[in-house]
Design brief:
- The chain contains eight helices and 19 strands.
- By secondary structure, it is an alpha/beta fold.
- The protein has three domains: about 100 residues, Beta-grasp domain (Ubiquitin-like (UB roll), Roll); about 100 residues, Elongation Factor Tu (Ef-tu), domain 3 (Beta Barrel); about 130 residues, Nucleotide-binding domain of ferredoxin-NADP reductase (FNR) module (Rossmann fold).
- The strands form four sheets. A six-stranded antiparallel beta sheet has the order 11-10-13-8-9-12. A six-stranded parallel beta sheet has the order 17-16-15-14-18-19, sandwiched between helices. Strands 2-1-7-3-5 form a five-stranded mixed beta sheet.
- β8 and β9 form a beta hairpin.
- α5 packs parallel to α6.
- The longest helix is centred in the middle third of the chain and has 13 residues.
- The chain is globular.
- It binds flavin-adenine dinucleotide.
Length: about 350
């Protein structure tokens, strides 16, 4: 009798999603987000490691097991309303969930895996390089999204990198990324550590829901380090599409030697159909240097010039601490969460801290 009482039900379970006609079958090991995406249901997501909160869904009925602490990502109201992170929860019974702003028409995006070969590796700064990969077939994506790279014999698990160039009609056969060297990092130490041209790898994508939403609101872009890559792609695509919104782009770097893509930003400024301002902000530039620009943290300049942030839509990419500070400030200044779009460049050290 006790055996029966305490036996855990391993499924399969039915996952019902409000607004979706048929339930999906899930087991007790697959994250709800993965199961939904595999079934073509486009739950918004970004980091997939429980670090951003984009994939939150409301649990209406049923039991789940959650793998990371969500309390610091969700508001007290959301916790009270039973929101969970779908990228970190697995089913323990039949479930019903609701997804805010679920757009079923967005489900057409196809994620595919391509084989590729590194064709060029070129330094952009002392610790960021440009990685160019030729693919065996076209890969479609939206400007701002990322791909998952796997290099047999170097990294068993994929690493995510944001596309640094804009998408071509019919898909890209050549894809470009900006890869910053992370001390102790398996992939980036390898990539930065020798001649890697000719290496075979796989590129799976696209991933993420960081792209420019159609709107007239002025844009505030914030990036740091290799977070430049998706913003560059997004802004270049916006130029091609003739976007006419005002745009301020704050770019955080340590010193002048960490700045890059200045020529590309100047070109965007020239072609942008509205007011465009690229504002580099240096946090560790020597006080006595010839740098004429802003010094400090980008967050100190969000409201520069009396900017009324509540009118803006934000697009941000880069290191998690910078984004966390910016998100908190923007929300405090009245930008609703739906108008703050971001990709945090989380790595294994952040994931380890989150699951500790
Ligand atoms: C959506 C997304 C987009 C991204 N886009 C970009 C991009 O465009 N450009 C870019 O440069 N980066 C990007 N990143 C980060 C990128 O995916 C990698 O995480 C990063 O390059 C590090 O990879 P690595 O293999 O060198 O390091 P890893 O081997 O993953 O290690 C990272 C760090 O964690 C430490 N570490 C490893 N294992 C553990 C452990 N168990 N416990 C504690 N610490 C550990 C390592 O010593 C190292 O310091 C993105 C990340 C995400 C989530």
């Amino acid at each position: 009798m006790f055996g029966k009482l305490f036996k855990r039900d391993n499924g399969p379970f039915k996952l019902r999603i409000e607004g979706v006609a048929e339930p999906i079958e899930v087991d007790n090991k697959t994250f709800l987000l993965t199961a939904a995406l595999d079934a073509g249901i486009p739950i918004p997501y970004s980091c997939r490691v429980g670090g951003c909160g984009t994939c939150k869904v409301r649990l209406l009925d049923g039991k789940v097991k959650e793998y990371t602490d969500k309390t610091y990502l969700l508001t007290p109201e959301q916790l009270q309303q039973n929101y969970i992170l779908s990228c970190q929860a697995v089913a323990r019974s039949d479930l019903s969930i609701a997804v805010d702003d679920l757009d079923l028409t967005a489900s057409a995006e196809e994620r595919i895996t391509r084989s590729g070969r590194i064709s060029a590796v070129a330094p952009l700064t002392h610790d960021i390089l440009q990685l160019t990969i030729e693919l065996d077939g076209p890969l479609s994506y939206r400007a701002g999204q990322y791909a998952d790279l796997t290099v047999p014999g170097v990294i068993a698990e994929h690493r995510s990198y944001s596309f640094a160039g804009r998408p071509e009609p019919g898909g890209n056969r050549r894809v470009v990324f900006h890869v910053r060297k992370v001390p102790g990092g398996a992939f980036t130490e390898w990539l930065h550590g020798g001649a890697r041209e000719g290496t075979e790898l796989t590129v799976a994508g696209p991933g993420g829901d960081f792209w420019l939403r159609p709107n007239d609101a002025p844009m505030l872009c914030v990036a740091g380090g290799s977070g430049m890559a998706p913003l560059k792609a997004l802004l270049e695509q916006a130029v091609v599409e003739g976007v006419q919104r005002d745009c301020t782009y704050l770019y955080g770097a340590r010193t002048q030697q960490d700045l890059y893509c200045e020529a590309e930003m100047a070109q965007i400024a020239e072609q942008w159909q509205g007011r465009f301002e690229f504002v580099p902000v240096l946090s560790e530039e020597p006080e006595d240097s010839d740098w004429p620009g802003r010094r400090g943290l980008v967050t100190a300049f969000l409201q520069e010039g009396g900017r009324n942030l509540s009118e803006y839509h934000a697009y941000m990419c880069g290191p998690p601490p910078m984004l966390d500070a910016a998100i908190a400030e923007l929300q405090a200044q009245g930008i609703g969460p739906a108008n703050i779009h971001f990709d945090k460049f989380l790595d294994k050290s952040h994931a380890a801290r989150l699951s500790a």
